[in-house]
Structures are given as structure tokens and as C-alpha cells.
């Protein structure tokens, strides 16, 4: 363990965080988003993805699993109910329930609110993101392509045979 991580662990323990040495960078990032920006030397490769994650299904789980495999720390920016309304969407589950479900998934390290399209650059800078990862249906979208000067942008293929839209239409019969 390098001196910087040792110092972070000591600081974490002094503030009562009480984490194992290997977990100190993750816990500090979660407790203080500014920590990531102030400590770029911490060897955690951060991945960020965005979504509504309503009616959670195996396609979502596979996307999160593959996104997590691109790094060491997966951040999910979850669309708020207000942002969904602005996009003309309505979720079955409210934001807090969707957040709780995502936080229970082992691949997800941190859930943050997505409240507008324009926050993406700020998110990448604040959380020192190395990779923004989205489903392939977003490939070429300027909102993500514009981030390439800050980080890698990766599009993952969708899982065949499943989508929230498909689930909703099947439920309608």
C-alpha cells in the first residue's frame, strides 16, 4: 500500500470511518465527492453510467455487471422523477425506490441523482470518472461524445430480448 493510501486510511480512521485499508478510497469517495477530485492519485478506475432503471430486469443487471468490469468503482447516475417528467417519461417506481434497488446490487458502488442533461461534464469532473459507459442505443449521442476529452466513452450492446419498454408492453397484454 502506498503512503497516500496509508494516510487516507489513517484519516478515515481518525474521523471514525473505520474501514479496511482496501476499502478506504471507496468509502472516502462516497462520503465526500470532492475527495476524488482532490486525490487523483488514488488507484481506483471509476466508471459512470446513466439511466432510469425502472422495472429492473436482467438486461439492466447485465449492463451494470459489464460496466463494473470496466473499472474498480461503478457510479450510477439515476434519473430523478422530475428529470424523467421533463423528458416526458414516468417511472413505475419513484426515485427513492429505484435508488434503493440499485444500491442493493453488488456491482453498484454509488448512486447519484441525475437531474438534467447538462450535468454530465460536472459529474465526470467531480467524481474523476475514467469511463462513461452507456447502452449501445446511445452510441453517437452528442451528450456522451462530448465527454471524450475528459474520459473514455464506451457503448455496451443491449441484452437481446429484454427492455423496459418490452416489459411494459407485455404487462399490458
Brief summary:
This protein is α/β, with parallel strands linked by helices. It contains nine helices and five strands, in the order αααβαβααβαβαβα. A five-stranded parallel beta sheet has the order 3-2-1-4-5.
Description:
The protein is an alpha/beta fold and 173 residues long. The chain is 42% helix and 16% strand. The chain contains 9 helices and 5 strands, in the order αααβαβααβαβαβα. It has helices at residues 3-14, 24-31, 33-38, 58-68, 81-86, 95-103, 120-126, 142-145, 164-172, and strands spanning 46-51, 73-79, 110-114, 131-135, 152-156. A 5-stranded parallel β-sheet has the order 3-2-1-4-5. Strand 4 (131-135), helix 8 (142-145) and strand 5 (152-156) form a beta-alpha-beta unit. The longest helix has 12 residues, at 3-14. The protein is globular. The termini are far apart.
For the structure shown, list the relevant keywords.
173 residues; alpha/beta; five-stranded parallel sheet
Secondary structure layout:
Blueprint: H1 3-14, H2 24-31, H3 33-38, E1 46-51, H4 58-68, E2 73-79, H5 81-86, H6 95-103, E3 110-114, H7 120-126, E4 131-135, H8 142-145, E5 152-156, H9 164-172
Parallel strand pairs: 1-2, 1-4, 2-3, 4-5
Amino acid at each position: 500500500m502506498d503512503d497516500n493510501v496509508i494516510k487516507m486510511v489513517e484519516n478515515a480512521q481518525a474521523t471514525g470511518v473505520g474501514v479496511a485499508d482496501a476499502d478506504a478510497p471507496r468509502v472516502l469517495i462516497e462520503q465526500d465527492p470532492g475527495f476524488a477530485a482532490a486525490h487523483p492519485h488514488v488507484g481506483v478506475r471509476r466508471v459512470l453510467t446513466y439511466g432510469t432503471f425502472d422495472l429492473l430486469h436482467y438486461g439492466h443487471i447485465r449492463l451494470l455487471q459489464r460496466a463494473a468490469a470496466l473499472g474498480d468503482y461503478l457510479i450510477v447516475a439515476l434519473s430523478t422523477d422530475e428529470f424523467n417528467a421533463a423528458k416526458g417519461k414516468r417511472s413505475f417506481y419513484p426515485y427513492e425506490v429505484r435508488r434503493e434497488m440499485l444500491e442493493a446490487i453488488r456491482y453498484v458502488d454509488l448512486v447519484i441523482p441525475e437531474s438534467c442533461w447538462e450535468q454530465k461534464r460536472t459529474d465526470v469532473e467531480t467524481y474523476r470518472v475514467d469511463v462513461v459507459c452507456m447502452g449501445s442505443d446511445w452510441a453517437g449521442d452528442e451528450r456522451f461524445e462530448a465527454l471524450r476529452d475528459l474520459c473514455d466513452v464506451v457503448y455496451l450492446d443491449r441484452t437481446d430480448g429484454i427492455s423496459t419498454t418490452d416489459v411494459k408492453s407485455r404487462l399490458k397484454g
